Amino acid sequence: MRTSLKLVAVLALAIASASAPLAERLGAPSIGPTLSSIGPLAFGPDGILYAADRQAATIFALDLGAQASGGAPGTKDVPAIDQKIAALLGTAPAEIRITDLVVHPSTHNSFVSVMRGQATAAQPALLRIDGAGKIDLISFEPVKFTSIALPNPAAASTTGRGGRANSITDLAYVNGRLFVAGLSNEEFASKLWSVAYPFSSADRGASVETYHGNHGQLETNAPVMSFVAYTIANQPHIVAGYTCTPLVKFPVTALKPGEKVLGTTMAELGAGNQPIDMVIYKKDGQDYLLLANTRHGVMKIPTSWFATAQPITSRVGGTAGTFERIASMTGVEQLDLLDAQRTIVIALGADGARNLSAIVLP
Amino acid sequence: MKKSIGLFFMIFIAFTSFISCSRNSTAAGPLKVSLKQTDSQPTSTGRPSHTIVVSGFSGQELQDLKAAQWNEESWQALLRVTVAGNDTSAVAGRYAVTSDALQFEPRFPFDPGRSYSVRVDPTRLPTPRNGQVVEQPVALPARTVSPTVVTAISPSAGVWPENILRSYIHFSAPMSATSSADFVRLVDDAGKEVEEAFLALDTDLWNEDYTRCTVFFDPGRVKRGVGPNLELGRAIREGRRYAIVVNPAWPDANRQPLKAPFRHELTAGPPVERGLSVSDWRVAPPAAGTRGPVVVTFPWALDRALLSRAVGVTLPDGRGVDGDIAVDPGETTWRFTPRALWPAGDYKLAVLTLLEDPSGNRIGRAFEIKAFERGDRTPQPERVTIPFTVK
Fold first, then answer.
1. Contact between A357 and A74 (Cβ < 8 Å)
2. Pairwise CA distance, residues B85 & B95, whole Å
3. Which CA distances in Å does A179 have to A51, A309, B137?
4. How far away is chain B from the Cα of A135, in angstroms, using its nearest Cα?
5. Partners of A358 in the beta sheet?
6. Number of neighbouring beta carbons within 10 Å of residue B280
7. What one-character DSSP code corresponds to residue B191?
8. Are B313 and B336 in contact (CB under 8 A)?
9. Are the C-beta atoms of A232 and A306 separated by less than 8 Å?
10. Fewer CB within 10 Å, N or C, chain A?
11. What is the pLDDT of chain A when averaged over all its residues?
């Protein structure tokens, strides 16, 4: 999952260079979206599902209607979910790529986005897992939707060959705005992009350049891989995980379009590592950030020190910051909050299968 | 008594069969499974769609099926299609009853070369028919395709800056969306792999047709003074020789391995840690009345992909000039050939400031900057221009 619905802030980012006019489809909802691809997902509190379509560089807002809920509320564990999804989609597990997992805010059914097939022949699929463990393929045909295009990549040439593409790494809806983070396969810059929802021609979205301090001397802008919005000292913030792997906070009020924003590096989570997903949860009266990483597993990070965190300005050779590695959670590739007591994950098991399972929050 | 009931039942079946036949003359026959191409138009996958057709139902059976208000489970009990060897779920799709058959169209087209199992159970008809369950494998022929090869790597030069951030691997045909992480290695001059050289991302860093993969070096090792850099240093060190090695097991879009391994030898050169400055560029204008190229020469190699997009030629009022862009091997020379003859006059070379070199240095801004210490919070202008005159 790419966002926590408990968030109280706003922000968005995208890595595109963003100056060309948007080609959004706005206005009254249409029926039957045609997605070219499906990546990160995020639910709004009203059950609208936001889905990122990388190939079309478009964000879809989907009203799933009756398909939002299955026969049973909640989500039951599904061992080897990749094999079952592959069977349902008529192919082999190696031919599917699970791109995100999110939980519906009221039914607590889980939704999984999948790309089936390879290269330009790959097709998007959205699946719902209910409290009985039943997997249903969502039909896009009856789904009401609106959509908005991400900013077009700038081009100086009218004839240049296009090879640029955004990988949208994260998506979040908070307080009426949708936030998008991404990574370009060409330029390495990072921008936060946000747009009001419902989409309208009055707000075409805005980008902000974000930086984080590496140490006392140098700053770079780099791609945000995962983020959540979180209130720190009564101020809405974005807590963002970058490649290799600083944890950075930005006050939302600083995210003014047209300005560079310097975030505060609160922690260094280790080398050779990428953040995958993060959620905020409460346990025993304390707030925690649960963060899944590619190399360093799942980390539980108390947020109580976020307000007073001093920027890391000295050179850090290993890790820095207060966090606890959750050794019992291994192979986690997707993560979201299932309910107040449990997280739901898709994790790669020792046998090579991917398992959907609920785990009591650590 | 039992005999009486049995006799009555047989008479009832015969009677209803007679009534049925009188309503619809098509008689029930052996159930047969076949695969039929349904669309002359390719699907969004670029492949035609195929439907499973089950024939041999009587007219009455088909009428009953048309009238049935069945849910998915009931249809699957009658006709179940699964991936051979994986019966954990039936293949999702639509059932349709035509005038002479029951059809199943999968939600996603069947994969060429993959075997599917079709199971038809006549006892699950609305009016159950006695008979054997029909089980039959079906498969579309596998495609025969030429193996894919690596056609190029950029930077194409034999010297790469020590702080290189990004390279591109080009392929002759679309690849699978598989990450490069498991298939691209950096080896040193002793043949030993340089561990953790690249950014292991699970995100999709391919171009639109999946023929070019972006491989990022770990920026944490590139950036001076951050944890990975302090722990491990930069992946390549100035003066030493290395090779980028591509494992041929990397599957292409047809899940076939590459035809051959690929190896690019390189020497690590000094790092480039300053922003690009267009004032360092040499612009050689063409002659008026010709279609000769504008030739721009850079002091060091720039990013191959961005050179195709971030540099162009405009008229003084900013309108673009149509033409074709070429980048010479080594990525230090850019050529723009117009579609029409050059009229004499003033032009501009337009350069987006997002243009980078392979180390992530941009126009006017190095990859690692001290801008905030200087209080510079002003965003870069989107583009800069270099005037030139065609005479």
1. no
2. 23
3. 12, 25, 48
4. 9
5. A344
6. 10
7. S
8. yes
9. yes
10. C
11. 82
User: In the prediction, which pLDDT does A188 show?
Assistant: 66
* pLDDT tens digit sequence for A21-68: 333 445 578 999 999 999 999 999 889 999 999 888 899 999 999 999
**Mean pLDDT calculated for residue range A96-121:** 95
Q: What are the b/e assignments for A64-97, b being 16+ CB within 10 Å?
A: beebbbbeeebbeebebbbbbbbbbbbbbbebbb
Chain A partners within 8 Å of B218 (Cβ): 243-244, 271-272
Q: Are B52 and B44 in contact (CB under 8 A)?
A: no
Q: Chain A residue closest to B45 (CA)?
A: A121
Do B309 and A87 count as a contact with CB atoms less than 8 A apart? no
Q: What is the pLDDT of residues A169-216, one digit of tens each?
A: 888 887 778 888 877 777 766 667 888 888 876 666 666 666 665 554
Q: Return the amino acid letter for A296.
A: H
| Helix, strand or coil, per DSSP, at residue B282 | strand
User: Which pLDDT does position B28 carry in this prediction?
Assistant: 87
Q: How far away is chain B from the Cα of A29, in angstroms, using its nearest Cα?
A: 24
Instruction: Report the phi/psi class of residue A169: left, alpha or beta, with left for phi > 0 and alpha for psi in -120 to 50.
Output: alpha
Q: Are A356 and A78 in contact (CB under 8 A)?
A: yes
Chain A positions touching B90 (Cβ under 8 A) are: 87-88
pTM for the predicted model, two decimal places: 0.87
The C-alpha atoms of residue B122 and residue A146 are separated, in whole angstroms, by: 45
Residues of chain B short of pLDDT 50, as ranges, are 1-23, 371-375
- Amino acid sitting at position A256: K
Whether B377 and A117 lie within 8 Å, measured CB to CB: no
A267: tokens are 């922690």
Distance CA A125, CA A99 (A): 10
User: From the CB of residue B377, how many other CB atoms can be counted at a distance below 10 Å?
Assistant: 14
ipTM: 0.86
**DSSP H helical ranges for A198-349:** none
Chain A contact set for B47 (CB, 8 A): 121
* Residues of chain B with C-beta less than 8 angstroms from the C-beta of A54: 204
Contact (CB, 8 A) for B152 and B260: no
Burial (CB count <10 Å: 0-12, 13-18, 19+), residue B295: middle
Residue A146 has phi, psi (to 5 degrees) of: -130, 165
The answer to whether residues A306 and A239 touch, using CB atoms and an 8 Å cutoff, is yes
How many CA atoms lie less than 13 Å away from A10 in the CB half-sphere? 18
Give the separation between CA B372 and CA A78, rounded to whole angstroms: 50
What is the distance, to the nearest Å, from the Cα of residue B380 to the centroid of all Cα atoms in its chain?
A: 33
